[in-house]
Amino acid sequence: MPSQWSTSLRNLAWNKEFIMKSYYIKDIFDKMEVGQIVEILGWVASKRNMGKIVFLDLADSTGKIQATVSKGIDSNIFLKARELAPESSVRVEGVVKKLRKSKEIEVKVIELICDASPHVVPQPRSSFDIFDKKLVDLILTKRHLYLRNERLMAVLKFRHKLIEIFREWFRKEGFIEIHAPILTQLPLYDDDTLFSLDFFGERIFLTQCVAFYLESAVCAFEKVYNINPSFRAEKSRGKRYLAEFWHIKAEIAFADFNDIIAFTEGMISYVIRRIRAESKDELKILKVDIEESRLTKTPYPRITYDEALNSLKAMNTIKEWGKSLSDMDVSSLSKAFDTPFWVTGNPRRIEAFPYKIDPSNTQLTKTADLIATEGFGELLGVAEKIWQRNELLERMKEKGKDSDERYRWYLELRQFGSIPHSGFGMGIERLIRWLLRLGHVRDAIPFPRLFRRHPNP
RNA sequence: UCCCCGGUAGCUCAACCGGUAGUAGCGGGUGGCUGUUAACCACUAGGUUGCAGGUUCGAGUCCUGCCCGGGGAGCCA
Q: Cα torsion at A368, A310, A347, A374 (round to 10°)?
């Protein structure tokens, strides 16, 4: 039985069964005037029952607004409001009222769209700490419901904006986006770090890295990039590991080691400036300050692998030459810098086969890792690639891949009009974790895939 | 893969040297309160202690195996 309010409103705007919203809660604050009749489609964020008044915090994707239901107006509506479970979705009609310097809604009509009891605890839209270590298991188990949490939403909006800014940057710089396959025969690393599946009777893998395909595309387009997930079945439990992570990869033709370093520095400092300016709301919710002037001070300092080992030695950490730097090593090193910094020239022994050997010291590769500040670890890696067939073949022999038929086409790229090129790869979640100071990369992605955790939801 | 730690109410946790599970907080239910904002106050319900064995008169507690999680190492982006 529609009330007068309901019918009058529906005649105004909503004369159909399925309603697409034309304004959101944020618009009520920004654009609507006191006295205006509004309709809110959203959720009950929280509720406070008083004797003759109920306070509802109504939320939608854009924010929260307080709504009041007085017993005096209509006792049915009042009772309905009293019994609403937090998180229930509702349609509310009401009048915009002044509340000190802000606004609230005086409710005239409430329709329950979907009841949310029994309750989800803690309530996703309440202000509990979604990153509380005690709640890790619960939040991940109920991740599908906790996406409604304000702080998680802020992280995911930040992520969305960050990726948009990267795409803008690539576009500005004349790159084209290449959609590389996710199903592939080519592993970058060892077989025990691959997720395999059945491709019409043939064993293939989820990609670990799309660089092979970008290296084909770079020979045509000269500047190419790709953003998609990479998969690593590494049995890793650290704060920086996801079995499925979003990977930004780019290749540039006729660029060498120094070019790719300068290029990525420009990109990172651009992205930091833009994201800070464009995510003010999210940063405020997350109580994070991105120190732009400090973090964008390029060029970033460079130390060589040998220098890194010496610094570690000075800090009483003896590292055998030729081993890769651990998270802890890299974290100790970061104490000496207030910006990100490069570690250049990783030993050939520990690097993958496509990366160029340093002609001035053949034990080293033309690679570098960009290390974040404050112990947040490696952000990205750059490499000059091997572009000559013989050199590549020699490296593949070294890694036992030279007779592997699957790499034949990759070798062919070095045979038919090959060109020098360099590239970089970055895990998006690691960048987000650093910028937002998150405890774990799992909170930088909506549905994390983690070693020793069921992929559910 | 290795090393630590944990699994008790819907959630977070208590429970001494092994003695038969808590008036705990949050959440639920009932009642009260027109200005609260994670409202508050009173009362109340709620448990095959992860699973399977074992030791014991007796196991949440000790032992073995398994399952499920968390932290760290190694390895990577």
A: -40
For helices A305-314 and A327-334, angle between their N-to-C axes, nearest 10 degrees: 80
Task: Pick out the nucleotide with least CA–C1' distance to A451.
Answer: B69
Q: Which bases of strand B have any atom within 7 Å of the beta carbon of a protein residue? A: 1-2, 10-13, 26-29, 32-40, 68-77
Nearest nt to A346, CA vs C1'?
Answer: B76
Render pLDDT for A385-404 as a digit per residue (tens, 0 to 9). 999 999 999 999 999 899 99
Query: Out of A88-92, A189-193, A435-439, which region has the weakest mean confidence (pLDDT)?
Result: A189-193
- Token pair belonging to A271: 């992205």
Q: Say how far apart CA A354 and CA A340 lie, in whole Å.
A: 25
Measured distance CA(A447)–CA(A437) in Å, rounded: 19
Q: Which nucleotide is nearest to A208 (CA to C1')?
A: B77
- The Cβ-side half-sphere exposure at A324, using a 13 Å CA radius, reads 12
| Residue–nucleotide distance: A163 CA to B65 C1' (Å) | 48
- According to CATH, the topology of domain A4-121 is OB fold (Dihydrolipoamide Acetyltransferase, E2P) (2.40.50)
Q: What is the pLDDT of residue A369?
A: 97
The nucleotide whose C1' lies nearest the CA of A244 is: B77
The topology (CATH level 3) of A141-444 is: BirA Bifunctional Protein; domain 2 (3.30.930)
| Whether A55 contacts A85, CB under 8 Å | no
Task: Determine the Cα–Cα distance for residues A182 and A212; give it in Å rounded to an integer.
Answer: 12
CA atom of A49 to C1′ atom of B30, Å? 14
